[in-house]
Amino acid sequence: MLKVEEIREIIKLIDESSIDEFSYETNGTTVKMKKNKETGAPTVSAPAPTVSAPVSAKSEEVVTTTEIPAQPEQEVSKNEEESKAYDYEIVSPMVGTFYIAPTPESDPFVKNGSKVEPSTVVCIVEAMKLFNEIEAEVKGEIVEILVNNGELVEYGQPLFRVTTK
Q1: Could you write out the DSSP letters of every residue in 8-67?
Q2: Which residue in 23, 54, 57, 18 sits closest to 39, CA to CA?
Q3: What are the pLDDT digits (tens) for 102-152?
């Protein structure tokens, strides 16, 4: 779930950029922003209920609300276990195509169980025909790869989960 501060930051970045539309989905919640063609200000919406409001950098506050149905206790405890299975998520710094290896014939940069250092390259994200090496930024062990090779990724989307213990 995105925090209000994170949404404000995204709105500010979209407002200052040439991007016309932006969509981000995580844990069943989707945030979509689309600049109003007449004013150039982004519009923010989120499902259940859908909230749409023109927004500009001068806005004081933007709040998106989503209703999350209550989960049975088994699922809650399962989610708690999953959240304890890692300490850090390596996220995509940009929109682009995710590649787990430098070439299709090469071995992947990392696999589940791989030990990483802060400077270890874990993948490549191709954006506008530029291949950007993404580093782990932490010392630890890869416990989960969240994206498939060749998949399109969004800015801030989690790519890997790492334990730092």
Answers
A1: HHHHHHHHHSS--EEEEEETTEEEEEEE-TTT--EEEE-TTTT--EE--TT-S-------
A2: 54
A3: 999 999 999 999 999 999 999 999 999 899 999 999 999 999 999 999 999
- Beta partners for residue 142, in sequence order: 162
DSSP structure class, residue 72: P
Q: Which of 75, 91, 9, 80 is closest to 44 using CA atoms?
A: 9
Give the global pTM.
0.51
Query: Omega before 72 cis (within 30°)?
Result: no
Q: How far apart are the first and last CA of the chain?
A: 25
Q: Which structural domains are found in the chain, ordered by start?
A: 4-54 (no CATH), 84-163 (2.40.50.100)
Question: How many residues are there in the chain?
Answer: 165
* Nearest CA among 106, 150, 148, 152 for reference residue 160: 148
